């Protein structure tokens, strides 16, 4: 008999489930079924849908749709829309993270100027970091479990970011914002931890 390798469920932090507006390409059922078939038990969906997940009614409608049809755990990103910055405080408790598009995307999600970017930081709660590998009490608000299971700490999910985008953001905001860059160290495998580092 062949040896089997047992792994924990994987997390995909960048998926496009296309709901609402693009269900002919992908939807919650097909995307989560495919993820689960590949060993992924939690996926985070990008907000560049039509309409975008940048207002509470749209995000709540997507959550309700997801809860009826998902096969694995799902978290929804909120999108920072320059025309709906005032929605960010309402979205914070319902989404796993905020996606700020600084480059090309469709719809009204591109943040092109520094005042709007700073408004995003003022209106969105700062990330909290888990210092040690342990289960935190602040479970992932916004993650919809498909069945009874482990809820991952919201802080771990929020801290995943592209190193290039994080560095670019730190240099852009250096004169205007005292922000903290976050660095995820994964060299230790299971002992991966999230650390805070001051902005450069």
Please give a quick description of this structure.
The protein is an alpha/beta fold and 200 residues long. The protein has helices at residues 28-37, 56-69, 88-92, 114-123, 154-158, 163-173, and strands at residues 10-15, 40-45, 73-79, 97-99, 143-144, 180-185, 193-198. Strands 1, 2, 3, 4 and 5 form a 5-stranded mixed beta sheet that branches. Strands 6-7 form a two-stranded antiparallel ribbon.
In DSSP terms (H or I, runs of 4 or more residues), the helix count works out at: 6
| DSSP, total strands | 7
- Main pleated-sheet profile: 5 strands, mixed
What general outline do the C-alpha atoms trace? Answer: elongated
CATH topology: TIM Barrel
Number of self-contained structural domains: 1
Q: State the fourth-level CATH superfamily.
A: Metal-dependent hydrolases
End-to-end separation in angstroms reads: 54 Å
Kindly name the structural category. Answer: alpha/beta
User: Rg, please?
Assistant: 17 Å
CATH architecture: Alpha-Beta Barrel
Mean pLDDT: 72
CATH hierarchy, class: Alpha Beta
Low-confidence stretches: 128-141, 148-200
């Amino acid at each position: 008999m062949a040896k089997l390798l047992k792994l924990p469920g994987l997390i995909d932090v960048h998926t496009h489930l296309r709901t609402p507006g693009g269900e002919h390409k992908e939807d919650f059922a097909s995307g989560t079924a495919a993820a689960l078939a590949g060993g992924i038990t939690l996926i985070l969906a990008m907000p560049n849908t039509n309409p975008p997940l940048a207002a509470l009614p749209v995000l709540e409608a997507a959550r309700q749709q997801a809860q009826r049809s998902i096969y694995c755990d799902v978290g929804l990103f909120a999108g920072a829309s320059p025309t709906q910055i005032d929605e960010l405080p309402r979205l914070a408790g319902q989404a796993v993270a905020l996606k700020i598009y600084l480059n090309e995307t469709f719809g009204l999600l591109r943040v092109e100027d520094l005042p709007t970017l700073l408004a995003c930081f003022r209106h969105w709660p700062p990330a909290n970091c888990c210092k040690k590998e342990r289960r935190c009490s602040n479970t992932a608000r916004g993650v919809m479990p498909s069945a009874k299971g482990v809820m991952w700490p919201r802080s771990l999910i929020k801290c995943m970011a592209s190193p290039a985008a994080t560095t670019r953001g730190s240099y852009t905001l250096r004169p205007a914002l005292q922000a903290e860059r976050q660095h995820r160290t994964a060299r230790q495998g299971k002992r991966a931890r999230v650390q805070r580092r001051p902005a450069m």
